[in-house]
Amino acid sequence: MTAYVGKYADELIANAAYIGTPGKGILAADESTGTIGKRLASINVENVESSRRALRELLFTAPGALKCLSGIILFEETLYQKTAAGKPFVDVMKEAGVLPGIKVDKGTVELAGTNGETTTQGLDGLAARCQKYYEAGARFAKWRSVLKIGQNEPSQLAINENANGLARYAIICQENGLVPIVEPEILVDGSHDIHKCADVTERVIAACYKALNDHHVLLEGTLLKPNMVTPGSDSPKVAPEVVAEYTVRALQRTMPAAVPAVVFLSGGQSEEEATRNLNAMNKLKTKKPWTLSFSFGRALQQSTLKAWAGKEENIGKAQAALLARCKANSEATLGTYQGGASLSEGAAESLHVKDYKY
To answer: Which of 33, 138, 163, 300 has the greatest CB tally within 10 Å of its CB?
Structure first.
């Protein structure tokens, strides 16, 4: 295979490797306007531009938190927003050594002839949008594909369709200077056991890398954002060490060593659960040619959101909660997390939402 060798190749490789720096990870703050509205509603805050901006400013200016991050994924609105003092969020990040990223997909639509399976939209006009986002300071992108486990799901049609969509997105991003995060999320919904999740995860990731190779994607300039291999949401939980063993084995069997890092999604796990599982993976003594890190949304923001509750006087407390979770996950990327990250309210509660839409 001849991989992409265009003008951005060296920059893509450098940025992907930087995002995968051990001890750092990604804050996913790219919730769509509808999704952030649900988060704000949970603390009785109105979903208006000023509230969304205030929450994101709280996150991006939390003292010490950005030292634990290498990237922050933004929604398009946020890429162009500024702090209350008038400083662009992109500049706040860059000065802290954090790369700005951007969500570029347009959500999911149902695949005809399937049992509610989906494909992701957003390829039309993607190249032009990527150029615009690069000029605005973004250096990586995210596209979420969604698969589900059922009696006959995921179908081969859904696996192939989503893999090809991810690959097409990835090469368009690379041609326009953005490192693509490849995110084939297998939802945790269901009563399946961990063996079933491992089987599906291996089939899905293998299909993704076949498609990425077919599309001549420069693997060194990409990142993978998969689900952790866990039992379904309606099944008994297993120990972090078991999640670690099954997850790392699935990656060993399907993921090329050329890719610099895996940035796991939290997938509705509680903040503490996601951190402990990541920590267990990094403690595992086995072959791991890629950095194992995080790209958490709910699992970095839940206790922060609860502490803030939309009140200015709570900003310090909320930022302290964010710093605690960022430090915990930074340690987990090194396998040194001891647990208990001064558990704030909300840190241990399940964040699972059935059929989660981003």
So the answer is: 300
